[in-house]
Amino acid sequence: VTHSIPACIGSMTINSKQLDNESPVSIFAVNKCYVTVQDGTFFDGSGFAALVREGYKVRSDVNITLEFRTTAVHGVLLGVSSAKVDAIGLEIVNGKVLFHVNNGAGRITATYEPRGTSNLCDGKWHKLQANKSKHRISLIIDGNLVQTDNPYIQSTSADTNNPIYVGGYPADVKQNCLMSKSSFRGCLRNLMLTKGQQAELFDFSRAFDLRGVFPHSCPGAEH
């Protein structure tokens, strides 16, 4: 077994002696247990999760779906980049969701701006779907579709080869399709990347690098 148990553990005794878990000698990637808890992964706003160590290849088509819950108006959701300019990025900037794609010829962006009294940073769950199909990109938030024109119709493939960074990224890593450096604070769940018929659901407890991220456990209310 190479990854931790997604659970709360309390009142542990060894040889009838109760262990003091309030003041451990050392601690790593352990969070407090919440009275009310929801499915999802909690991001505390300080770090990121890194998935697919060998690099994720977006190429011509990808469909990203996830659900998020936050009260912060800024935060990185997801980025996959390359050593060149090719990249994709999903982020929340000033309460709007932006989906950026660069197939090598230039960055294009689909922007979802909440209308009227609707607010994406209200601490409630919102469904996001970001789709790249060759040079076309679209964004669907809670069933509302945004599409954008792409003048670079000859350029269709985002030749990425870096890991998928979720909720933020390390300071020494370049992200060509993200403007924000703010790590996401809130909860994410059901992250899935689909290429054709191949759908991959990502389990954050299996990330190769986790900083400030607590898999499988979301506080019932914002702390």
TrEMBL record:
Read off the SUPFAM superfamilies from this record: Concanavalin A-like lectins/glucanases
InterPro entries the record matches: ConA-like_dom_sf, Laminin_G, Neurexin-related_CASP
**Any idea where the Laminin G domain is?**
38-218
Entry protein name = Laminin subunit alpha-1
Its source organism is Fulmarus glacialis (Northern fulmar)
**Source taxonomy:** Eukaryota, Metazoa, Chordata, Craniata, Vertebrata
